[in-house]
């Protein structure tokens, strides 16, 4: 058994580590606050925000428009009831979601600026996306043109490639989890199903929405980051066609079609788009195009020319 002295030393190290993590969090908060025009605030409480209209309702709470009083900086505030979180046994999942999202800094990943809590609630301070969910935009417009689709697929691939390079798999890509900001840029959100793995472990949890689930997850087989690539192909199809490729009236038929990878591309779809989708939606995960290949695909560059210059810059700086 460890001596009391050793134990105390271990405890001290742990406390120091916790203190240093907390310090890091506060410094980061301070940095965000500084960027937002505020220089002295170390951590937030509800009094620091003016709460505006509700933006939506999620599984565990509500999201409101918020404005940081000191800076006037507009954010989205996600408010979760602790009691509900405990009742649904999700505090651990929430902590993981917050940790993962907090550390991912990419122009197409929704920023999580910080969080705070009071006796009853947890508040998550998020980047505000004025145009809301891609799901709603798709519902309103029916489908998207090639230019918007190419841009969103490029930005989503770029965000996911960034996640994968950090061993994070999102695992829940769908139009509800993709937000659009005031400039029309895509922000990937909702890391509730995400995992951070050590590079070799293949996870086999069933999660995500049926229409976007890849065959290996349906079959409850081990899976890798390639599950996200599959969903990029599904999203591209849904944007261009207005419905997901395996969407049929019954769930059992959807499952059957996904397992056989049985889907039909409309004749009216441009050849380049067909080729790209066919190269992503593949039963065999290793056959699916890599996200870098998606970003450099001729159809994508044709309809989102910025992709070419971004790609060139990325290649040069690597
Ligand atoms: P679920 O897991 O069911 O998706 P959730 O708890 O993750 O729920 P969110 O999806 O994050 O909740 O938020 C609920 C709604 O609030 C969304 O549908 C969206 O319309 C709106 N919303 C969330 N975050 C933002 C944001 N950053 N900017 C603008 N609107 C947002
Ligand atoms: Mg959501």
From TrEMBL:
EC number annotated for this UniProt entry: 2.7.11.1
Subcellular location, principal: other
Positions of the Protein kinase domain: 49-300
Catalytic activity annotation: L-threonyl-[protein] + ATP = O-phospho-L-threonyl-[protein] + ADP + H(+); L-seryl-[protein] + ATP = O-phospho-L-seryl-[protein] + ADP + H(+)
Chain residue numbers at which the record places covalent cross-link Glycyl lysine isopeptide (Lys-Gly) (interchain with G-Cter in SUMO2): 174
Alphabetical list of Gene3D superfamilies matching this protein: Phosphorylase Kinase, domain 1, Transferase(Phosphotransferase) domain 1
Cell wall biogenesis/degradation found in the keyword field: no
Database matches in InterPro entries: Aur-like (IPR030616), Kinase-like_dom_sf (IPR011009), Prot_kinase_dom (IPR000719), Protein_kinase_ATP_BS (IPR017441), Ser/Thr_kinase_AS (IPR008271)
SUPFAM superfamilies associated with the record: Protein kinase-like (PK-like)
Stretches the record annotates as Disordered: 1-24
Compartments reported by the entry: Midbody
Active site: 172 (proton acceptor)
PROSITE patterns referenced in this protein's UniProt entry, alphabetically: PROTEIN_KINASE_ATP (PS00107), PROTEIN_KINASE_DOM (PS50011), PROTEIN_KINASE_ST (PS00108)
Molecular-function GO terms, alphabetical: ATP binding; protein serine/threonine kinase activity
Positions that bind ATP: 59, 78, 176-177, 190
Any GO BP annotation: chromatin organization
Keyword Chaperone in annotation: no
A cellular component annotation (GO) from this entry: midbody
Organism superkingdom: Eukaryota
Alphabetized UniProt keyword annotations: ATP-binding, Chromatin regulator, Kinase, Meiosis, Nucleotide-binding, Serine/threonine-protein kinase, Transferase
PANTHER family documented for this protein: SERINE/THREONINE-PROTEIN KINASE IAL-RELATED (PTHR24350)
Family of the protein in this entry: Belongs to the protein kinase superfamily. Ser/Thr protein kinase family. Aurora subfamily.
Protein name (database record): Aurora kinase
Taxonomic source organism: Mesorhabditis belari
């Amino acid at each position: 058994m460890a001596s009391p002295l050793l134990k105390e030393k271990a405890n001290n190290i742990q406390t120091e580590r916790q203190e240093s993590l907390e310090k890091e969090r506060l410094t980061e908060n301070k940095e965000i606050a500084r960027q937002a025009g505020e220089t002295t605030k170390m951590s937030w409480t509800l009094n620091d925000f003016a709460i505006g209209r509700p933006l939506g309702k999620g599984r565990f709470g509500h999201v409101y428009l918020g404005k940081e009083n000191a800076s006037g900086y507009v954010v989205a505030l996600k408010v979760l009831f602790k009691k509900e979180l405990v009742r649904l046994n999700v505090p651990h999942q929430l902590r993981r979601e917050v940790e993962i999202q907090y550390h991912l800094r990419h122009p197409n990943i929704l920023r999580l600026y910080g969080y705070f809590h009071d006796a009853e609630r947890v508040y998550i301070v998020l980047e505000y996306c004025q145009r809301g969910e891609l799901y709603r935009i798709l519902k309103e417009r029916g489908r998207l043109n090639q230019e918007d689709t190419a841009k969103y697929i490029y930005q989503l691939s770029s965000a996911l490639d960034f996640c994968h390079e950090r061993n994070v798999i999102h695992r829940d890509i769908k139009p509800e989890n993709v937000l659009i900001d005031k400039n029309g840029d895509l922000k990937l959100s909702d890391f509730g199903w995400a995992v951070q793995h050590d590079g070799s472990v293949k996870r086999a949890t069933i999660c995500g929405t049926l229409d976007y689930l890849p065959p290996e997850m349906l079959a409850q087989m081990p899976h890798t980051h390639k599950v996200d690539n599959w969903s990029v192909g599904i999203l591209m199809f849904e944007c261009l066609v207005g419905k997901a490729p395996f969407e049929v009236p019954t769930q059992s038929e959807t499952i059957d079609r996904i397992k056989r990878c049985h889907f039909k591309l409309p004749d009216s779809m441009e050849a380049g788009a067909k080729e790209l989708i066919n190269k992503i939606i593949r039963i065999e995960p290793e056959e699916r195009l890599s996200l870098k290949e998606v970003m450099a695909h001729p159809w994508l560059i044709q309809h989102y020319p910025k992709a070419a210059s971004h790609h060139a810059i990325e290649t040069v700086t690597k």
